[in-house]
Amino acid sequence: MTNVTDSFVLLGHWPSAGSFGFNTDILATNLINLSVVIGVLIFFGKGVLSDLLDNRKQRILNTIRNSEELREKAIEQLEKARARLRKVEMEADQFRVNGYSEIEREKMNLMNSTSKTLEQLENYKNETIHFEQQRAINQVRQRVFQQALQGALGTLNSCLNNELHLRTINANIGMFGAMKEITD
Questions:
Q1: pLDDT at position 7
Q2: How many whole angstroms separate alpha carbon 23 and alpha carbon 11?
Q3: Contact between residue 53 and residue 47 where contact means Cβ atoms under 8 Å apart
Q4: 3-state class (DSSP) for residue 141
Q5: Angle 113-117-133 (CA atoms, 0-180°, nearest 5)?
Q6: CA atoms within a 13 Å half-sphere pointing along the CA-CB vector of 176
Q7: Tell me: the pLDDT tens digits for 141-163?
Q8: 23-35 pLDDT, tens per residue?
Q9: Rounded CA gap, 171 and 168, in Å?
């Protein structure tokens, strides 16, 4: 890189041979070079630059058009979503109302069935009490009967003597014998 720079520097020190030569004034040459470069760029680059700007403009317009289409689709989807939301809210309200009425209906059914169950339990309780009373009465009757029977047997045993006892046994044997003859 230094060789290229050195060669330009050396060219600047040549003695001028007539009308052709190198201008070593940096400020004057830069302005001329810049105007030549800009002129060439404008002349040759105008078509390329305008094509680039047209392409960029088309891309921007396409992007804007696509954005508008997406916006319209988004608005349409938003409206559909809002409609679905309203529908779901109405259904939720309907379910809520139906749920409350269903709860009330179930509450009444539960209260009625509980009332019937309590009534049946009360009837079973009364029947059980009545049964237990009858059983207790029967047990008391059996005891009274057993005590009366034991008292009667005790009285009979104390009143009966051996002779009366033998006559009763013979009378009973005679009755059994007569019954046997009737059945044969």
A1: 45
A2: 10
A3: no
A4: helix
A5: 165
A6: 6
A7: 999 989 988 888 887 777 767 77
A8: 666 666 777 888 8
A9: 5
pLDDT at 134 over 90: yes
Side chain identity at 8, as an amino acid letter?
F
**Number of C-beta neighbours around residue 116 at 10 A:** 10
Burial class (CB in 10 A: 0-12, 13-18, 19+), 37: exposed
Exposure string of 123-133, with b = 16+ CB inside 10 Å and e = fewer, is eeeeeeeeeee
d(Cα 156, Cα 160) in Å, to the nearest integer? Answer: 6
Tell me if 22 sits within 8 A of 11, measured CB to CB. yes
Confidence class for position 37, pLDDT limits 50, 70, 90: confident
Decide: 12 and 24 in contact? Cβ < 8 Å. yes
Q: Are 66 and 73 in contact (CB under 8 A)?
A: no
Q: Is the dihedral of CA 112, 118, 124, 130 positive or negative?
A: negative
- Grouping H, G, I as helix, E, B as strand and the rest as coil, residue 160 is coil
Q: pTM above the 0.85 mark? A: no
Round to whole Å and give the CA distance between 159 and 172: 19
CA 60 from chain center: how many Å? 48
